Amino acid sequence: ETGVTQTPRHLVMGMTNKKSLKCEQHLGHNAMYWYKQSAKKPLELMFVYSLEERVENNSVPSRFSPECPNSSHLFLHLHTLQPEDSALYLCASSQDSSGIWTDTQYFGPGTRLTVL
Amino acid sequence: AQSVAQPEDQVNVAEGNPLTVKCTYSVSGNPYLFWYVQYPNRGLQFLLKYITGDNLVKGSYGFEAEFNKSQTSFHLKKPSALVSDSALYFCAVRDGGAGSYQLTFGKGTKLSVIP
Predict the structure, then answer these.
(1) Average pLDDT for residues B38-66, to the nearest whole number?
(2) Choosing among A100, A105, A111, which should be mutated to test the B contact, i.e. which has the most B CBs within 10 A?
(3) Distance between terminal CA atoms of chain B?
(4) ∠B8-A39-A12 over CA atoms, to 5°?
(5) Which residue from A19, A47, A54, A42 is spatially nearest to A88, judged by alpha carbons?
(6) DSSP letter string over chain B?
(7) What is the DSSP letter of A7?
(8) pLDDT in the model for residue B35
(9) pLDDT category, A10, cuts 50, 70, 90?
(10) What is the rounded average pLDDT of the residues B26-54?
């Protein structure tokens, strides 16, 4: 589990706060992902980065803003969130090339976010 | 569009008995299929995957899964369950024909192994 790390592990924030989630992968991968896991719902893909370029954004509200400064780091900047945004936010990475996308995604432990 | 279904919210099995967690999928091209496990307050851990080749795939912790193209299924199995196998299990599919980044997950099946 140390291949993909996430900080903080727990975060409580008010609706007017600005905070950031951090993900770091130590696997030499070239693709990184943000997922949202809510109770009673399947995992929702939020963002995908390949070689530091965003390649997919699944209609995520603008109050979530991703940043990928290099292939090892991924951030999720949060501002003016709503209580319904409370969830477990998971980061993942994979080694994908040539547009084939067969490789396994490896997940971090997640950040448990509570919005008051 | 690609989709995956896990028809059981919960599976209970006695320790030492065989276990099966069911998964069916729908894709337009070739399916790339994955199983993950999630323990409380942890991220998802990869168990096994099917991309091509032998229909019976062996993975971590003694788990295996069988790809059945005619039934569009990819059930997870283990010959003898352990109490430590109790966790949440996710099946996931990617449509190989679509060239998509999207990995679609099922809603998960909670496995409880009873001592």
Answers:
(1) 92
(2) A105
(3) 41
(4) 160
(5) A42
(6) --EEE---SEEEEETTS-EEE--EEE-SS-EEEEEEEE-TTS-EEEEEEESSS-SEEE-GGG-EEEEETTTTEEEEEESS--GGG-EEEEEEEEETTTT----EE---EEEEEE-
(7) E
(8) 97
(9) very high
(10) 91
The per-residue pLDDT for A28 is 92
Contact B90 A43 (CB under 8 A): yes
Q: How far apart are CA A34 and CA A18, in angstroms?
A: 18
Cα(B8)–Cα(B6) distance, integer angstroms: 6
pLDDT at site B100:
67
CB distance B31 to B97 below 8 Å? no
pLDDT category of residue B114 using cuts at 50, 70 and 90: very high
Which tops the pLDDT comparison, A92 or A100? A92
Q: Which of B32, B101, B108 sits opposite A48 (nearest CB)?
A: B101
pLDDT of A22 strictly over 70:
yes
Whole-number Å distance between alpha carbons of A75 and A110: 13
Q: What is the mean pLDDT of chain A?
A: 90
CB contact under 8 A, A99 and B41: no
Amino acid A68 reads C
Inter-chain residue contact B107 with A40, CB threshold 8 Å:
yes
Q: What is the average pLDDT value for chain B, to the nearest integer?
A: 92
The encoded tokens of residue A96 equal 């994908």
